[in-house]
Each structure stands twice: as structure tokens, then as C-alpha cells.
Amino acid sequence: MKTFGQTAGKFFHAMTSNPTTGTPVKKKARSPAAGDDDGMSSDADERSVPLTANQRSWIGGAVSAAFTAFGEHIEDRVLEVEAKIKTREEEAIWLKGQVEELQSKLVALTPVDFDDGQTNAALTARFAQVDQQIQELKSVQAAPLPPPGLGGRAGSSISSDASPPGDWLSEVPPELRRYARLGNLGFDTDAPTLLTRAKAFLTSIGVAPEDYKCLQAVRDPGSICSLTFSDSVKLQDAKRASRVLSFTQPGCAKPTWLDVEKSKAELKPARIIHRAAELITDFETGRPDRQDVTKILNGKQIKIEGRLVCYTYRGTLQWASLGLSRYSADERMQVAAFAEST
Fold first, then answer.
1. What is the C-alpha to C-alpha distance for residues 209 and 24, in angstroms, rounded to an integer?
2. CA-CA to 78 of 20 to 30 Å: which in 93, 163, 258, 324?
3. Model pTM?
4. Do 286 and 257 have their domain in common?
5. Is residue 61 domain-resident?
6. Cα–Cα distance, 153 to 149 (Å, whole number)
7. What CA–CA distance (Å, rounded) separates 82 from 101?
8. pLDDT digit of tens for each residue in the chain (342 aa)?
């Protein structure tokens, strides 16, 4: 395109210059005899203005430069468009490869990946296996309970067999679990009273007797019962209904709650906060500037006067700036050792 401008400039220069006379090229005047009707005489050449060599050179250079600039601009635009076209072609090729890869992965998927029935069947089989283990362990419950003086509150667990042993619950999503716990049914309440209150509470939130089984007190005396629902959907519905009801049992400060059974690993952060709060409260009792200690189990935090003291992170106790400044290194070490020894 650059040579186009240069060639056009030379051509224009040649057409506007007469190498013999040095004047612009003009049409030859016609004589009246040839039929000239405009009355112009043949002395038209005498009225023309001659151009000097410098003028011819300047005009030719200006025209050549203009056409050259025009050609360069056109060439730049053509190159830019070609580059964009090439980029779009490369993107199209890349997208085509991605589509082919996704299509190959889709074809490689087996029907079981989309078959919820098979997944539910596997979970049902696992629950049936656990139920069988529960039935085998019921023989332990049939044994006489130790006298109250020997076991105390923590010595006579009668329902640890009502929920599946081990920590495998962590592998089952909470929304698919059927094992549940009922809490805040009393305080140091005997097992028969706990069972009576649990049944009444379940009835009040719309849970039919045939929708659950294995209702047992966790401890005697205690405040929690465990049970197994017929399916996970009914457990989730009952859980939401218990929150709406928000019923508080006699002698309790907080409403009765219903939740899925959790593994030891899932309960560890709350246990750490609970035990850490006990020791921090003891420290505060002996301080001249004693402050009230608040534990937030669902948030896994301990606060003093609304300010964060410590919290749990990945199963370990972590200290906030207030805790670091308020308690010595030895006190913090005691709290961590006491809390994480559960």
C-alpha cells in the first residue's frame, strides 16, 4: 500500500507538468471552423499561468506524501483486522477443544453417577448394618445398672449403644443422617422422666410414634435422649419444627432442642470451648477486675464483656489479642491443656 501512494504521486506529477514548456497540460483549443460555439479564441494558451520547477516539485511531493500516508493507514488497518481475525480463529479452536473434552468426560460418566436410587440404596444398606449393630449391643442395656453411688452422673451411660459406634458419622452429610439427639429435657433428671418428656415433645412437633425408634436416655440422671428416625427427611422436618415451637422444660433455662447426632470430631470444638470457659471463669474469680465470661458454643468462641478472648480453629484453641494480654503464658497453657484433653 505504501508503493501505491508513491506511484499515484508520480502519475499525478506527470499529468500536471509539461516537460517541454513547463506549463500545465491543457486541452487544445478548437477553431471556430471546427464548430466551436462558445466563442473562445485560439489564444487560450496565452491566458494560462506557467509553473516553475519548484512549484511543480512541491505539488508533486505533496500529492505523493498524501497518497503515501493514505496507503500506510490502509495497510495498518488491514494488518489490524487480520490480527483480530487470527485471534478469533485461535479462540474458536480453543473453545472447540474444550467442548470436545467436556463431551468426552460426559460420555465417560457411568449411569450410577446420576442414579440417586443407587446412592440411597447404599446409604440404606449402611443404616441397616448399623441398626443390626445396635440390636446386638442391646444386650448390654439389659444388664442391671450400677448403684448410683458407684457410677454417679457420668458413671451410668445407658444409651451409648443407641447411636452407631465409631466416628464414621463424619462421612455422612448431616442432611442424610437418621440418628438424632433431644437435649434440654431437664437437669439431672431420671431416665423415665426424660423419656416421658421426649415423647411428649415429639408429639407436640408432629412426629408420629412410628416415625422413630430406639428412644433412650443418654445418662441417668441426665438431660439428653437419643433416637433413630425412620428417614432423614422426617428428622429434618422435626428439627425445623422444634425450633419453631421453642418449648422450655420445667427447671431448664433454655428451650428443648432436636438435632442430628454428631461425631466426636464434630463435637470437639464445642467441648473445647465449654471446658476452656470453665477454667477461664476460675481465673476471673480470683482477679480484682473480675469480668463475666460468656461462651458461644455455636460460634466456638469465648468472650468477656462482649470482647473476643479465644476461639477454636481446626480443632485447636486460639487466643485473641485480649486473651493474650489478660492472661499469662502459663495460664493460657493450662487452659489449652485442660480444654484439648477431652
1. 116
2. 93
3. 0.44
4. no
5. yes
6. 9
7. 29
8. 545 555 555 555 554 554 444 444 444 445 444 444 444 444 445 555 577 888 778 888 888 888 888 888 888 888 888 888 887 788 778 777 777 777 666 665 544 444 555 566 667 776 776 666 666 555 544 444 444 433 333 333 333 334 444 456 667 788 888 999 999 998 889 999 999 999 999 999 999 999 999 999 998 889 999 999 999 999 999 999 999 998 999 888 889 999 998 888 888 888 899 899 999 999 999 899 999 999 887 778 999 988 999 999 888 899 999 999 999 999 999 999 888 875
- Segments forming the whole domain that contains residue 249: 126-138+153-262
Residues 297, 304: Cα–Cα separation, whole Å: 14
d(CA 93, CA 90): 5
Is the C-alpha dihedral spanning 272, 274, 278, 284 positive or negative? positive
Do 166 and 238 reside in the same domain of the chain? yes
* The three grid cell numbers given for residue 170, joined into one nine-digit string: 463424619
DSSP secondary structure of 149-167: HHHTTTS-B--TTSS-SSS
The two most distant CA atoms of the chain are separated, in Å, by 151
